[in-house]
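FAQ: What does a multi-protein file look like?

Like this. Sequence, then tokens, then the next protein.
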Amino acid sequence: MRGGILTITRPGFTPRSRRKAVSLTRVAAIAATTLAIAASCATVDTAVVAEPGATFSLPVGATAAVSGNSARITFNRVTSDSRCPIDVVCVWAGDAPIELTIAREGSTEARTLSLIAPKNEVVVGDLRIRFVGLTPAAKQSEPPATRAYVAHLVVTPL
């Protein structure tokens, strides 16, 4: 009984008005799901622009486009972090090598740079890339896996 009116339906039969409501709800759900999937798969180029001679910051997983050059530098990962934690007294400062991918004119090279000279620079084509710092600073109470690393680099043309 609906609204004081007795409705008789056959088993497996849905009144037309309920079918429209269900199908519109289903279509809206499918559309929302499709939109969410498409948005998560979309790639938005949010590259950092690296000006020659100036220090720039590059978060892990991000790419920098070198101004006036076709080169693109991607910060892949920190290979290890043995830097002395800021809340500890150490004899040695430690190191935190990073892995970069340098793409230029159809070729791609993976390079590892260290915080310690002379392994803190690499020459690729007509560019010198220098690794000058890594944040955040290490803390004894914080495992390296939880850090949102940002590499600080300088690119200079040769």
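And here is the next protein:
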Amino acid sequence: MLLVIGTFAGVLVLVVGIYWLTNLGNSGPLTCSRHRYALSFRTTCPTCGRVNIDERCEHDDSFVADVALEDVLTAPIDLLRETSVAPPKLNHPLYAYR
């Protein structure tokens, strides 16, 4: 079994979506029966500290970089357990970064 994790700006095509605060409500999954999400609550720019709710600053820093890798990796495993599919073994080198 292959587990692919990534971000995508369009329709959610992966088991786990990584969302920023308001984007979950606008473009997140309608249910969690077959999807999971990881959510960032960051509202301030990591560079200048400006609140980016109503308007954004000039920096292009990631607002989802705070999402923990462990949260992203455990979400699909929990989903697989709930659907009675054997979860993959996490022996990939990427998992060592947590």
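Q: Is there any per-entry metadata?
A: Some entries carry free-text notes. For the entry above: Strands lie at 16-20, 36-40.
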